[in-house]
Amino acid sequence: MPAALAFLLRRVAVAVVTVFVAVSANFFLFRAVPGDAASVVKVPGMTAEQRQQIRAEFGLDKPLPNQYLSYLRQLTHGNLGISFENRKPVAANLAEAVVNTMPMVVVGTLIALVIGFATGLFGAWRRGTAVDAAGLGTALAFYAMPAQWLALMLILLTNGLFPSGGMSDVFLVDADFWTMMRDRIAHLLLPALTFGLASYGQYAVIIRSSMLETLGEDYVLTARAKGFSNWAVVRRHALRNAMLPITTLIALSLGTLMAGAILIETVFSWPGVGLAIYGAVRARDYPMLQGAFLLLTCSVILCNLLADTLYLRLDPRIRTA
Amino acid sequence: MTSAPQPLVDARDVNVWFDLPDGRELHAVRGADVRVNSREKLGIVGESGCGKSTLLMALMGLLPATASVSGRIEVMGADLLAGGERAFRAHRWKDLAIVFQGAMNALNPVIRVQRQIVEALELHEVASGMAAVHRASDLVRLVGLPEGVLRKFNHELSGGMRQRVSLAMALACDPRVLLADEPTTALDMMVAAQVLALIDRLTRELDLALVLVTHDLPLVTRTCDRIQVMYAGTVVESGTPADIYHQPQHPYTRLLFAATADVHSDGPDPVTILGAPPRLDQVVPGCAFEPRCPHSQARCATDVPQPQSAGKGRSWACHYPGEST
């Protein structure tokens, strides 16, 4: 299908350009902030010469365009620089944080999607009833709650039933697989639940309004006239059309998932990307922050591209447009 | 045969109210009767907002949840209002199929035409698998479209093609009655004429009964066997086209004829019916047409005219019938 291919190529091109712009902005943004590697290192009685030596070591004495070019060159080799704080490659630090963050935010998002779909679909179906109002009200209340406060309340309410910090029990060594698994899941539960509850509101609202709009369409009336039951009308005719705007939202929020949740990870001491960003800000670990920003922008751009591709599958009108 | 044949659709004293957001009620259909006999073509005519589409939706049980319906709606002898949604669903598409006025979006934009026809066949167990696909291609050929239409999406079809597909879809399960709710409003004149001719031909060939809802009185006098003129939710006059055309009894019917431009003759210019239909969220004490009626008299404002029957489906609801315009 040439039209579809053209559409896809255009989107890929846009994504590539966006990544390049983001990378450049990322570079110059961190050159604009005050301080560099040399000013962070605080050794009493450090001479100006030693300072200059550190600057030379990090290549900070060269002109900005040269720095920019070598930054780009290093990026193509996957080199994001060295963390000021632990002197390890930023890429390795980030990879470890991403691996930690993913299970928590993926489970959290699944929770959010399940509750969000249930609330939104039911609300649209029983529009104007007390159940609709209660569901929507609850969704908005949770969405409005500060995530860190919700996290603390959940810890308080569960009363020590589940561990409230870290990813695993550090004293659990040489345990069998299932014990390890149970321990991991117990640790995952509260942060994932907080993440789900704090973010399901946006899904509920979008799904409800998108569904309401679709249910008012002529083709839904046609489907009812054909003799389909209400549920079959929703499943066969309304849902796929209502999914179009929802897909965009889900893909966009998947992009930001990489960020983990700074506040939630901080409350639960979850060693993910969010906590890494929090730590990097406190330690003025610029390379680490720069790497994290790059990771976030790229994942948002990639997820956008994913949404466009999904759209192509879901909406035949784009294929011929 | 001593007893008269049972009508396919027999609705009596149908009233429809809509709950308005401010708590008031809109009385959209006010005691209307609809009878459709086998192979009969019934035309329901009236201005916009006179309740004709609402009446049609009530027959199918497709009104929104904010509507309440009273009266008696029988389809092929079954009392549907008493049976509720389940009873209505048993007759939808199999016995009563409908072509909507908003043909532009009557088809699902993300599902191919074939699937939309086949799903109706499968739901009502008319055909399945390859048999259903063959039936779908027979249907689109029946409405004068090439088979390739089956693989198209809604946005790839023109307005006329969409309406033909809607018609093919409506005919899928061999219904007894075809309801057509202003089937040509969204189409230009040439295409509208083609679609109407197609509906006319197919209802005859397939022995269907037709209920054609439109605001085009001359059109129904040409194509239908019986006509009901509706005003403000009430049937104000009904009869054969000959009755309605040659001896219109209700002043509204006469004005509807006078309001139509006739491109074929040098007759008088069309007349405008002054004023607008009454607001249906209010109780009308007398004849609903009284404020716009050129012959209204004192009694008309206070006394609701009851339908007077002249036998054989001929009736009118006017205190002073036959007053010439």
Task: Show the helix and strand layout.
The complex is a heterodimer of chains A (321) and B (325).
Chain A: H1 2-32, H2 37-40, H3 48-57, H4 64-76, H5 90-125, H6 130-144, H7 147-158, H8 177-215, H9 218-225, H10 230-257, H11 262-267, H12 273-283, H13 286-314, H14 316-320
Helix pairs in contact in A: 1-13, 5-6, 5-8, 5-12, 5-13, 6-8, 7-8, 8-10, 9-10, 10-13, 12-13
Chain B: E1 9-19, E2 25-36, E3 41-45, H1 52-60, E4 67-75, E5 78-79, H2 80-91, E6 96-99, H3 113-123, H4 129-142, H5 159-170, E7 177-181, H6 189-205, E8 209-214, H7 217-223, E9 226-231, E10 234-239, H8 241-246, H9 251-258, E11 308-309, E12 315-316
Parallel strand pairs in B: 3-8, 3-9, 6-7, 7-8
Antiparallel strand pairs in B: 1-2, 1-4, 4-5, 9-10, 10-12, 11-12
Number of helices of chain A: 14
CATH fold type of chain B: Rossmann fold
Major beta-sheet overview of chain A: none
* Main beta-sheet annotation of chain B: 8 strands, mixed
Helix content class of chain B? 25-40%
CATH hierarchy class name of chain B: Alpha Beta
User: What multimeric state do the chains show?
Assistant: heterodimer
Q: Return the structural class of chain A.
A: mainly alpha
Order of helices and strands of chain B: EEEHEEHEHHHEHEHEEHHEE
How much of the sequence of chain A is in beta strands? Answer: under 5%
CATH superfamily of chain B: P-loop containing nucleotide triphosphate hydrolases
Number of strands of chain A: 0
Instruction: Give me the strand/helix succession of chain A.
Output: HHHHHHHHHHHHHH
Uncertain segments of chain A are: none
Please compute the radius of gyration of chain A using only Cα atoms: 24 Å
CATH architecture call of chain B: 3-Layer(aba) Sandwich
Organism (chain A): Planosporangium thailandense
Keywords (chain A): Cell membrane, Membrane, Transmembrane, Transmembrane helix, Transport
Subcellular location (chain A): Cell membrane
InterPro entries (chain A): BPD_transp_1_N, MetI-like, MetI-like_sf
